[in-house]
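chain below, 255 aa
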Amino acid sequence: MRRIVGAIPARYGSTRLPGKPLLRLHGRPMIEHVYRRTAEARGLDRVVVLTDDQRIGEAVTAFGGEWEMTPAECASGTDRIAHAARGWDDVDAVINVQGDWLIAPDHITRLAHHLREHPGDPVATLAVPASRGDLETPSAVKVVCDRRGYALYFSRAAIPYPRADGGDGAARHLKHWGIYGYRRETLLELAAAAPTPLEQAESLEQLRALENGIPIHVLVVQGQAASLDTPEDVAGVEAALAGNPLTGAAPGGNR
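prediction:
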């Protein structure tokens, strides 16, 4: 198998929190926290930040990381990664690690190992057990899977339906985590495809894959992740960093 790249899309112009990749938390910019956790994951051959802003690139250079410039007009993180991946001819798979998300290195490792061990899977992603509060929150995306672990559907609604009498039985309620491992050719195919009806109805781009017949393998893990979307999220991310500080590993990490 050829190389696996951990790609971190990071744009400057967030509507709700402009410049958030450069927001300093525990003395370091947010993008450094994300980069170092990704670099600690095993199974990656390269970690790179993909940005549309020189200021973010300079911050990555300052802590010893690697970055590439991508166009400002990329509509999503997936589009930004696909733009860069068109030039990565020696790469087999790409893991999309969101630049505003703190996720444990072991979870990234799980995806990398799955991609190596299951070359027939075009896309893989993660999910965790959902709480009752998650079921009632549209921003917490839910997923249902078949018996082999492949996604049947993703939704902002509560799926499967949580019956008041507990009659949902053995069905598991799962919350999707928005980290994806793609085969390079699948990533490029999805980026070139038109938005699909269910994708637009739910505002969930992963449904584009399902509507085009591309299977998504869902790996169920345990744990938590912290995201930085609004100024109100800063306290939660600070608390997550206080409980799980950087290990001090070099940006090159353990491949």
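The mean pLDDT is 90. DSSP finds nine helices and 13 strands in the chain.
thats it, cya
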